[in-house]
Amino acid sequence: xxxxxxxxxxLFAAWISLISxxxxxxxxxxxGSIFHSTALIADGVHNGGDVIAxxxxxxxxxxxxxxxxxxxxxxxxxxxxxxxxxxxxxxxxAAGFLxxxxxxxxxxxxxxxxxxxxxxxxxxxxxxxWLYLYxxxxxxxxxxxxxxxxxxxxxxxxxxxxxAAIGLGIGWAGSRLNIPYTHYxxxxxGIVVSLLIxxxxxxxxxxxxxxxxxxxxxxxxxxxxxxxxxxxxxxKKIDILRAREHGNAVLIDAQIRxxxxxTIQQGDDITEKIRQRMISRYPYVEEVLIHINPWYExxxxxxxxxxxxxxx
Length: 312
Hints:
Alpha-Beta Plaits; three-stranded mixed β-sheet; disordered N terminus; Alpha-lytic protease prodomain-like; mainly alpha; 64% helix
């Protein structure tokens, strides 16, 4: 199994995001300050948050590479989920700042829009679009949740940069054509995009929190795991099947019923075959723990839900 933190290419993708976010932060804040663009400065501050998020991604990948120890017998795979939650918090804070800055801009006199500020916003949007495609493909290839969170962050940046570009474009065209109230397009677009960023951040933090709370995988996935186990004719019944995410891996616990006539060695051989088939079919499955219960052909197995209610 190749985990993302074991791949130099995954780390390279994280470094590309970090360097790009740092350069974009400088470009936006410098151009925004020179040409007095509120939207561009706010977008630059947003990118500054992305720099912190990229550092968190690299740190979580390095931490995830640590082997299991006495204090962490299941390894450090959840470090990436913690990083995803941290990135979500940064996005929420950035969205709040953008909303505040946009409302503030609505209440202040409008600044003339520069074509250079508009160009910087368009350059940022195109750059971020390439980063989103590159990072999301790397996240899918290496099953990295922190890279996927970074890709979602890039997607939010695309919305922010295009909104800034649209707002600056309308303001620039309106000032040239003497169209009244066009200077309000910039902060209004900023508010709309901030709400979109807030929505993405909330989805990310819910997903990462579910993993940290060790919630189950989807029902469809559980059914797939159930079908694999039941494909062995010796397995008469599955009493319990639990599957949970642990970082980028999945851990499976199961209680199955095998014929009581089988020896301990035979039962162990069957469970090992089940484990090997599960891992070969699903490379992200890191552990399959199977407990064996006896099955008697001539005895009726009473289901828990069918136990009669005996009242005293």
